[in-house]
Write a structure and sequence with these properties.
- This protein is α/β, with parallel strands linked by helices.
- The protein has five helices and five strands; from the N terminus they run βαβαβαβαβα.
- A five-stranded parallel β-sheet has the order 1-2-3-4-5, covered by helices on one side.
- Helix 4 links the parallel strand 4 and strand 5.
- Helix 2 packs parallel to helix 3 and helix 3 packs parallel to helix 4.
- The longest helix is centred in the last third of the chain and has 17 residues.
- The protein is globular.
- The two termini are about 25 Å apart.
- The model has no long low-confidence stretch (mean pLDDT about 90).
């Protein structure tokens, strides 16, 4: 790290394994397992596949309530927000960054198809973070989930 990033800020380190949990029951079970085993894997609280249609805000508030709670012992809990095409992704970001006791360890952006979509989402997360007074940038990971997007990665 000293040689590769001399004078630069090294990139955020994310564990190679993260576990997705979308329901409250599975979120709490996953957090309990992480407490038992230690921070050997991250937990991604899932707004995309976990939220019931029409109850997205309620689900995002649940996610926010667990980040930084007594269940989040190691600070290794992130979130997956809704995808770029979903009308609620911005609300996910606002609700979670506003209501959580601390910022998530990372935010996962699902179904990324193009660089402009990812750039818009990242810019929104950064602007919201600053607006809400969250001190440090939140690492973002992109999920490339389609063949078309995979051909555009490079």
């Amino acid at each position: 790290a000293e040689v590769l990033f001399d004078g630069e800020v090294p990139p955020a380190v994310l564990p190679a394994c993260d576990h997705y949990a979308g329901s409250e029951k599975l979120m709490l079970k996953s957090l309990a397992l992480q407490q038992q085993l230690g921070p050997v894997f991250d937990i991604t609280l899932d707004c995309e596949d976990g939220a019931q249609v029409g109850r997205e805000a309620e689900h995002a508030e649940l996610v926010a309530s667990l980040i930084g709670s007594e269940h989040d012992r190691f600070g290794r809990v992130g979130v997956r927000i809704h995808d770029f095409e979903h009308p609620h992704w911005r609300d996910d970001v606002r609700l979670i960054l506003r209501a959580a006791r601390r910022a998530p360890a990372y935010i996962t952006l699902p179904k990324i198809r193009t660089v402009p979509d990812a750039a818009e989402m990242i810019a929104f997360i950064e602007a919201t973070r600053r607006e809400l007074g969250v001190a440090n940038p939140v690492p973002v990971q992109l999920l490339v989930e389609t063949h078309g997007a995979l051909t555009r990665v490079f």
